Amino acid sequence: MSTVLNPYLAFGREAREAMNFYHGVFGGDLVVTTFGEGGMQHEPGEADLVMHAQLTTADGHTLMASDTPSTMPVPERGQQVSVSGDDAHLLTRYWEGLSDGARIVEPLAQAPWGDTFGMLVDRWGVTWMVSIAAPTGHSG
Predict the structure, then answer these.
(1) What is the CATH number of domain 8-67?
(2) CA within 13 Å, CB half, 93
(3) pLDDT single digits (tens) 93-127
(4) Which residues form the Glyoxalase/fosfomycin resistance/dioxygenase domain (predicted)?
(5) In the chain, what are the domain boundaries?
(6) CATH for 80-132?
(7) pLDDT tens digit string along 14-49?
(8) C-alpha triplet 58, 34, 67: angle, nearest 5°
(9) pLDDT value at 137 more than 80
(10) Is the model more confident about 74 or about 100?
(11) Is the Cβ–Cβ distance between 99 and 121 less than 8 Å?
(12) Quick check: do 8-67 and 80-132 share a fold?
């Protein structure tokens, strides 16, 4: 049996907007189920809130999210997601997409440890860290 560990982001009322944005950045398949569709008890006017959204990319990444109904406390900000690897082209494309409307904390640039690293806070308050592994196997 295998296991999977993936981020699950909690939003107040912005899950659909955020997940549609991430879908535009990462591609893949996005499935959104509302509280009304899921048959969950909900307050009047909350049937269209996102009970569960799942974005699955061709690269095998999974990102999940939900809205917070009025019967639950709104989540604290401070959610962080890290995306890393050695595909500089793809990770740079992710960075550029995530940068739209974001506050750049650290520009995507070579870090003292050799990798290319950047950090930003997107328009929903989610911190994204992008790390591109330094090329290996150089002989000098």
Answers:
(1) 3.10.180.10
(2) 9
(3) 999 999 999 999 999 999 988 899 999 999 999 99
(4) 6-130
(5) 8-67, 80-132
(6) 3.10.180.10
(7) 999 999 999 999 999 999 999 888 776 667 788 899
(8) 85
(9) no
(10) 100
(11) no
(12) yes
CA-to-CA distance for 140 and 129, rounded, in angstroms?
30
Question: Looking up tokens 């996102």, which residue turns up?
Answer: 50
Nearest-angstrom CA–CA distance, 106 and 110: 11
pTM: 0.84
Residue the block writes with tokens 């290319």 = 116
Contact 26, 94 (CB under 8 A): yes
Identify which of 62, 84, 79, 70 has the alpha carbon closest to the alpha carbon of residue 129.
84
End-to-end Cα, the chain, rounded Å: 44
Structure token pair of residue 88? 């500089």
**C-alpha–C-alpha distance, residues 82 and 94, integer Å:** 11
* CB neighbour list of residue 120: distance below 8 Å, 6 or more residues apart: 95, 98, 99, 102, 103, 104, 105, 106, 127, 128
